[in-house]
Amino acid sequence: MEATKKVTGKSVKKWLGNNAIIVLMLAVSLIVGIIHPNFFALANIINLFKNVSIRYIIALGISGCLITTGNDLSAGRLAGFAACLACIFAQTEGAAGKFYPNMPTPPPPWSSSSSSPSAPSWVCATASWSAT
Question: How far apart are CA 81 and CA 126, in angstroms?
Answer without folding.
Answer: 24
